[in-house]
Amino acid sequence: MEASGLQEVLNPSEIFLAERPVNTCGSVVVPILEGTRPFLVEIQGLVARSAFGMVRQKAQGFDQNRLALLAAVLEKRLGLNLADKDIFLNVVGGVKIIDPAADLAVTLAVASALLDKPIPSDTVILGEVGLAAEVRSVAQLTSRINEAEKLGFSTIVTSKQYKYLANVIESLGNKA
After folding, report:
1. Partners of 50 in beta bridges
2. Which are the contacts of 171, defined by CB distance < 8 A and separation ≥ 6?
């Protein structure tokens, strides 16, 4: 909306990624679906030692219960120490994500922030994460990949390459 009225937004993904920091720990891009339209959003994670003895898990734009479940998977299945850590998660741009394809991006944003290792900036990540730390496929994968490629992302991380979360973290850790 501008003074002259409504203006067409040619590519909403560009708006959500316009101010994205490059090679920052805890920053991950995920192609999500809104209806049938894919667009890319940035997920930011921050992990810090709890100062009050009682840990907090706060999420903006993502279900807090799902964040708690994914944090438990990271701790139990991958051995990451989150028991004494506060976890903060933000979906940039005020977007609210209900798409399970964001699970893998959320877990990697948290792991990246905890391990202080950035995810390569040319990478998009999508996949549902199960309780056994398996990475599951998502709907409309081709349209999501096409949207990412349109915006210049050259590495796409999905369940097609990685079946388990540990393999994804290990692989991306070697590239960082």
Report:
1. none
2. 162
